Amino acid sequence: MHARWSKTLVAAAFVLIAGCSSGPEPQSPAPPPAANPGGSFPRVVAGADDSVGSIPGSPDSPYIYRFRMVEPPSDRFSYKDRDLSFYFKPAPDALHFQVENLQNRVVWIDWEQSTFLDRTGRTLKVAHSTTRWNDRFGSQPRTQIPGLARYSDYVLPMDYLLDSGGSQVQLHKQVLPEDSTAPNYADVVYGVDLMFIVEEKPRNYTFRIRVVSVTPR
Length: 217
What we know:
The chain is mainly beta. It has a single domain, classed as Immunoglobulin-like (Sandwich), CATH 2.60.40. Helix content is 9%, strand content 39%. The protein has one helix and 15 strands, in the order H-E-E-E-E-E-E-E-E-E-E-E-E-E-E-E. It has one helix at 2-21; strands at 44-46, 63-71, 73-74, 78-80, 84-90, 95-101, 107-109, 115-117, 123-128, 143-145, 150-157, 161-162, 171-173, 189-198, 201-216. The strands form two sheets. Strands 2, 3, 4, 5, 6, 7, 8, 9, 10, 11, 14 and 15 form a twelve-stranded antiparallel β-sheet that branches. Strands 1-13-12 form a three-stranded antiparallel β-sheet, with no helix packed on it. The relative contact order is 0.21.
């Protein structure tokens, strides 16, 4: 009886020792880290409403942009010559502007000859409020501004337009993102070159905006 128990205990000890000396059981590889951990995704917007608020951008954005017009330099985001008066309102979704025709004769905005300098330094075709995804490879008609009249619009790079699936809604990426990448754009300079036809002659107006700061809301 005792001999049989001794053999059993020896066999059990052998199995235990063999198990301890063997390597760990194979394990499944750890899953990859989640994409964009703790961040948000770039915002897609429809159109670009000109906000009346003093702080540009979406009210739920975690960051606040501050801007300055550096070309031509202006604390009021304005410029005027004998023919036209401009006022700009930068915002993350688009670059809003108003232009007033100071003379009593028609002028035109030539969108095909206008360009947008984007946040990465690329010079791109310009889109405005009536531009749609299907207009990317076509010609945009000029916009007429009658004498002594005002015209309001916004501009953004044509490449930022997105396919709206046949809808007439203008979907596009923001000119400046409001997600976790926003602080990377502090000190960036961007803007627009607007080509006008004044007295049947082309006249280019260059405007540049600098991002002064990007701070947490």
